[in-house]
Amino acid sequence: MPELPEVEALKDFLTENLVGHEIVRVLPVAISVLKTYDPPLTALEGREVVAVHRHGKFLDLTTDGGPHFVTHLARAGWLHWKDRLPDGPPRPGKGPLALRVALETGAGFDLTEAGTQKRLAVYVVADPQDVPGVARLGPDPLAEGFDGASLAALLKGERRQLKGALRDQSLIAGVGNAYSDEILHAARMSPFKLAASLTPEETETLYRALRTTLTEAVERSRGVAAGRLKSEKKSGLRVHGHTGDPCPVCGDTIREVSFSDSSLQYCPTCQTGGRPLADRRLSRLLK
């Protein structure tokens, strides 16, 4: 799933390639992608893109005097930029193409989604806050005013485990499954540690890991073409997706805990005092 660093990089890429250009056609291929109907997609046509913003994992294309085009790429969605779009309208079918946006220059982008779950979402709204997922977002962890005290206030009284708290978009915007693993590894904390149990020193450690991990990922992604961002993300991950590999810090074997629709990875030596965590499907979690 694209997370804050990749969506930030897409925002920068689209700012460079979209702003100042006119949207001439918006062509839906998979109707399931459309989550709003008023204003219609046609309200975007003939409008100049004047800005591109990021709200957590949402991309927001702002048009001159018109509506916002807001999209969430979900788990299996992606944006593919094309300097020259194919001639003729796309044909509905069983392929991954969900929606196409064409510019007056002949360039544009496709939104695609692999798999069968179809969670890719597009909203056409007068205000981004009209999108429920945007309206419920917590603070952006890379915002200038987000400091250690901000994180401490969010975690105060939070009875969930750190892994779940970091992934909650209404608590902190933009962090998903992969970067929560990376942040907790950098902080040397168990994913199952209760958020409310952190000492002030541990909260500061987690804050530094959060900011550093995300900032470094954004810097790695900056200037990377949209089509290469997925591979760039994978190349920068130290523990997530590396089950069975040696930890790059201590050399211990990276382990995994599986859930019904996802998994987490961690290093026992760095994060849990050398103790492996029980698989949630088989037994209770080890604290």
Q: Quote the beta fraction.
A: 15-25%
Neighbour order of strands in the largest sheet: 5-7-6-1-2-3-4-8
Helix percent band: 25-40%
- Total strands: the figure is 10
Gyration radius (Cα, Å) is 20 Å
- Mean pLDDT across the residues is 93
The separation of the N and C termini measures 27 Å
| Tally of separate helices | 8
- What characteristic shape results from the CA principal axes? elongated
> Any low-confidence stretches, pLDDT <50, length ≥5?
282-287
Largest sheet: 8 strands, antiparallel
Find the structural class using helix and strand composition: alpha+beta
The run of helices and strands is: HEEEEEEEEHHHHHHEEH
In terms of topology, how is this protein built?
Layout lengths: L3 H15 L3 E7 L18 E9 L2 E6 L4 E5 L4 E6 L14 E7 L4 E6 L7 E5 L6 H4 L12 H8 L6 H6 L9 H11 L12 H22 L7 H8 L18 E4 L4 E4 L1 H4 L16
Antiparallel strand pairs: 1-2, 1-6, 2-3, 3-4, 4-8, 5-7, 6-7, 9-10
Helix pairs in contact: 1-6, 3-6, 5-6
Describe this structure as you would to a colleague.
Strands 5-7-6-1-2-3-4-8 form an eight-stranded antiparallel beta sheet. It has eight helices and ten strands. Helix content is 27%, strand content 21%. The longest helix has 22 residues, at 200-221. A hairpin with a 4-residue loop joins strand 3 and strand 4 (68-72). It has 287 residues and is α+β, with helices and mostly antiparallel strands. It has helices spanning 4-18, 132-135, 148-155, 162-167, 177-187, 200-221, 229-236, 268-271, and strands spanning 22-28, 47-55, 58-63, 68-72, 77-82, 97-103, 108-113, 121-125, 255-258, 263-266. Helix 3 (148-155) packs across helix 6. The protein starts with a helix and ends in a 16-residue tail after the last helix.
